[in-house]
From TrEMBL:
It is an enzyme of class 4 (lyase). It comes from Maribrevibacterium harenarium. The active site is at residue 48. GO terms for biological process: fatty acid biosynthetic process; lipid A biosynthetic process. The lineage of its organism: Bacteria, Pseudomonadati, Pseudomonadota, Gammaproteobacteria, Oceanospirillales. One of its GO terms (molecular function) is (3R)-hydroxyacyl-[acyl-carrier-protein] dehydratase activity. It catalyses: a (3R)-hydroxyacyl-[ACP] = a (2E)-enoyl-[ACP] + H2O. This is 3-hydroxyacyl-[acyl-carrier-protein] dehydratase FabZ.
Amino acid sequence: MMDVNEIRRYLPHRYPFLLVDRVVELNLGESIVAYKNVTVNEPFFNGHFPDHPVMPGVLIIEAMAQAAGVLGFKTMDKTPQDGSIYYFVGADNARFKRPVVPGDRLQLEAKIVTEKRGIWKFECRATVDGDLACSATIMCADRKL
C-alpha cells in the first residue's frame, strides 16, 4: 500500500493534477491497483458541467496513465529525483462506458504488456463500484529530465 506522500515521490504531478490518491496493490513488473476519490471540489467540475458535474474523459485516461507511471517507476526502481521522467505518449482503443461523478471512487488498474527501449505499454481499466468506466491501452516513455 502506498499513501499520497509516497506516491508523490514517484510522480512529479501536484495539485490540481495529481490524480492518484492511494495504491492498494502493487506487483512489480506486473500490475497495480490504485484509486482516485472524486469530490465535488475538483476544479474541473466548475466548467464540466456546472449543473451536471462529470469528470472529463481525458482526466480519467490521465489518472490511468499516472497509475501506470507509478508501476513503471517502482518496477525500474527510479524516481523523478533520479533525473527520470515518465511521459504519457499514447493511448489506443480508449472506450468510455459510464460517467464518473462526484462521490465516486475511481479504481485504476494497469497491467504491463511490453517494455522496449524505455517505451512501456499498459492495459488499463478504470472502474466505479465494479462497473467499467473506461479502458485503454496506454503508452509511456521513460526519459531523462
